[in-house]
Design brief:
Number of helices: 5
Number of strands: 10
Helix content: 10-25%
Largest sheet: 8 strands, mixed
Order of helices and strands: HHEEEEHHEEEEHEE
Radius of gyration: 17 Å
Structural class: alpha+beta
Distance between the termini: 11 Å
Length: 203
């Protein structure tokens, strides 16, 4: 679970690494694996963002529905892709922009909080979903665009929501691993965490 919190936090700050001596998968492979985070019926119409040979985030495919999928960052260990509602894109892209400028994680959170409160940064007016699909490197065949026994988690963004406004706990219930809980309550980044139980193969 600790690794998931770290990944979600990088999404919150819009983490984007600089290019290193890493082979960038083909656009086709990036698209095929990125959409694995999306519900099956929404994969074909999703917009897909991925990486060019410079390690920059670029649009690999324009979509026709409300989902935006982000391909795995080849410069980071492990495999992790995500798909999120298009209304979250201003939030995500702002984070990527600030990260490229070398702004720290805490500063990015504070800056986006201030911008969201002022109206400069548009946050969704309704609950919006993020899907995260991850797996160890040894379970991924990027050449074939295949992932074996990945793990799918869910996040529902509800900016400014609190435990009191939702009835959700502030931390996972130790007795029920799948129970939703709220993270960053009362802020622009407030979101519901949903971590389904892992199956044996995905552990």
């Amino acid at each position: 679970m600790k690794h998931f919190f770290a990944f979600v936090f990088m999404l919150l700050v819009g983490y984007s690494s600089q290019a290193q001596n890493t082979t960038i998968p083909t656009a086709e492979a990036q698209i095929k694996t990125a959409v694995l985070a999306a519900p099956a019926e929404m994969r074909e119409g999703a917009t897909v963002l991925g990486y060019n040979q410079k390690g920059e985030v670029v649009t690999l495919r324009k979509g026709t529905n409300e989902l935006v999928c982000l391909a795995d960052d080849p410069n980071q260990p492990g495999f992790s892709v995500s798909c999120y509602h298009r209304d979250l894109e201003p939030f995500m892209s702002r984070g990527r922009e600030l990260r490229r400028q070398g702004v720290s994680a805490n500063e990015i959170f504070d800056m986006r909080e201030k911008e969201a409160k002022s109206g400069k940064l548009n946050m969704p007016k309704q609950p919006t979903t993020l899907f995260v699909y991850s797996a160890p490197d040894e379970q991924v065949n990027m050449r074939a665009g295949e992932v074996a026994d990945g793990y799918l988690r869910y996040v529902v963004y509800i900016p400014w929501a609190t435990s009191e406004s939702t009835g959700l706990p502030l931390k996972p219930d130790q007795g029920s691993v799948a129970m939703p809980w709220i993270m960053h309550p009362g802020t622009h980044g407030a979101h519901i965490m949903i971590n389904p139980p892992r199956n044996k193969a995905g552990q």
